[in-house]
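Forwarding these from the shared drive since the link keeps breaking.
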Amino acid sequence: MSLFHLFILAIIQGLTEFLPISSSGHLILLPQLTSLEDQGQIIDVAVHIGTLGAVVLYFWSDVKKAAVGMGEISRRNYKSENAKLALLLIAATIPIIFAGLILKLTGLSDNLRSIKVIGWTMLIFGIVLYVIDQKGAHIKTTKDWNYTDAIKLGLWQILALIPGTSRSGITITGARQMGYTREDGARISMLMSIPTIIASGLLLSVEVVSTANIQAAKDGAIAAGFAFMAALFALTLMMRLLKSVSFTPYVIYRVLLGFGLLWIAYS
């Protein structure tokens, strides 16, 4: 795979993974709207690893707490702040793991990879994000995150299995609907992405082990590096902008792209 192709894939994944505009939708669209070949599962795993590294680095203090919490849970200490954070992330991740396995085993996930589906999800969930973001209260912070809200956000996250929905977008929408501030809702969403990306990466890794080779490993390493840098930039920019800007710019992009894709699909 050419360096240019790897760069394009990594930039798309890195910039869109944490912005509420759907990374999976953009990766599916790339080969369908251009002459570029489908990148395959190995590169998918690689760019996911790159974006995982970015979110872990950016939220390192929280990641460290959750890691310490996992150790405390193994020692049957469930009451500490660190253990609570780890348990909240586990509770928020379980729903999408089960739903993802069902879609994978039934083959339904492959049937959703179309321009028409992505067009509708871009449009519909973009509008939903706008409405809820504008009307949602700003009363909860990460300190208010509890098990009930974690499970609810986990259920919201299941919708991200539909290409074009956006994992970050739908979980931020859910958090805003529950009254979390824009910045804290995004923070919770980003932390939820860590176990979700790990789970999806492990699932994809099982499929690519038998097909891996040295050249593929090299391509993957390059793609992971590019994705890491792009994701760190996008994540830093979004978290800073949320202190003064709403999600409206992302909604406008989603709506315009959605209409464009639907025009292509139905023309």
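-- next protein --
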Amino acid sequence: MFSGARADAPAAAPRLMPVFFYREGGKGRYEVNLSYPQAASPGVGSLNKLLRQAAEADQRWKDGPDPDHESLGYDADYRIALQTESFISVVFTRLTVFGGPYPNNEQFTVNFDLKAGRAATLDNLLRPGAQAKTGKLCKAQLRKYYGEGSDEMITKEVVDGEVGKINNWVFEPDQIQIEFDIATHAMGAYACKLSGKTAAALLRPEGAVRLVTH
């Protein structure tokens, strides 16, 4: 984290140096603990702004005291999933405590095309038809994982909707993960995993992401 780079990051990849923010909580006041990276290299476009916004989320914790809760907390942490000369994928985990028995957990990914200098889009990363193919693959994984009786929850419309959100996609050196949080609280979230040639075949050959397939 302090080096700003994954062990496999090439020398030309922008370094992502950590920034930390902490604010003590109290009665009716959020305790805030943020960790997020900022690129130390020039020419990264809006990357730093997007990374900071991802850590801050909807900033409910900036609204001030809430008299209905004794204890409130907000925490954001990150990991660098992919870091190359052409692409950055940073995964944020965000936790909000509202005072109830269960915190609200989120995962949010910033995917950034360094070649274009802007946030990546699925249209720019995937081959034609690849998004629909991904929906079918993930739907099969979800139904197998959750078992019988999940058909009403895991519909084509729901799965395609989650697959269509690029902030659910995590690009790693040898695989792609798509995060789903469509189940009940007891069942929790699920990450659809696509690796090797299956994952590589989804990507445009001229696109910003390259995967290791061996």
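The chain is about 20% helix and 30% strand. The longest helix spans residues 130-146.

- D.
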